[in-house]
């Protein structure tokens, strides 16, 4: 069973975080921006040119990851985060995610306490 431990590893993984059209206004409002400001500052066309995606930090991580150390990762847009993020790992994940994510490991394998 998956239990998020707020490690932020899924947010550090390089790759597209797709944004659906209906997510633009709520995310923009969460940030105190207009939809146009949000799109200009935080979005780009995905590499396959089929969708919008969030821009990444220089290290490949999510632009909205606030990292205060192990078990203290936070999403700046938590209440309005994209569906792709909300449905990790059940509907979206990446090859090898279980090795990177303490929440995907069995209780015997993970030494970190649940929070």
């Amino acid at each position: 069973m998956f239990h998020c431990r707020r490690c932020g590893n899924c947010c550090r993984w390089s790759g597209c975080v797709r944004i659906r059209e209906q997510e633009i206004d709520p995310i923009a409002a969460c940030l105190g921006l207009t939809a146009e400001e949000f799109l200009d500052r935080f979005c780009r066309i995905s590499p396959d040119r089929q969708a919008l995606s969030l821009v990444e930090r220089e290290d490949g991580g999510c632009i909205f990851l606030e990292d205060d150390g192990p078990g203290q990762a936070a999403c700046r847009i938590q209440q309005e985060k994209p569906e792709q993020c909300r449905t990790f790992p059940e509907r979206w994940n990446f090859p090898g995610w279980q090795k990177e994510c303490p929440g995907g490991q069995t209780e015997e394998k993970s030494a970190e306490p649940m929070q």
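Residues 27 and 33 are 9 Å apart (CA to CA). The chain has five helices and five strands.
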